[in-house]
Amino acid sequence: MQNTSLSPVKCVSYCEYDFSVDGGAVSAITVECNPIPAGAIITSGVIHVKTAVTSAGSATVAIQALSSEDILAATGKASLTLNALLDVVPVGTAATMIRATSNITTLTFTIGTAALTAGRICVALDYFVTA
């Protein structure tokens, strides 16, 4: 095997939205995450709902790293139940992977249709760096 400067390590970035800390108004809420460096390729990940998302209305949650809904398309509160596990948009295929064109230090949780009254969502994104 040829020696290269590439590191054969897959990394994980974590981000957590918490209603009690971040609020839940219909808006775009920016939440800090473990940094993903520019040039990294996000290959897959998982969303774990640690506290069920609740709302007096038909609330939705979408998540983005670089562009609208690139991590999670708008998803209704009925799917965001206690201990729910959801796929992120990048599902391990080249067609769905995201190449970070700049450092990613936050994710944006977009609350739509109605405000939230509770919820805690953890996002884990798998990525690697090729250059």
Structural class: mainly beta
From the spread of the alpha carbons, the general shape counts as elongated
Q: Assign a percent range to the helix content.
A: under 10%
**DSSP strand content:** over 45%
Number of helices in the DSSP assignment: 1
Number of DSSP E strands: 9
The pLDDT mean sits at 94
**Oligomer description:** single chain
User: Based on the structure given, which CATH architecture is correct?
Assistant: Sandwich
Low-confidence stretches: none
Distance between the termini: 18 Å
Largest sheet: 5 strands, antiparallel
The CATH class designation is Mainly Beta
What is the total domain count? Answer: 1
CATH topology grouping: Jelly Rolls
Order of helices and strands: EHEEEEEEEE
Taking all Cα atoms into account, the compactness measure Rg is 15 Å
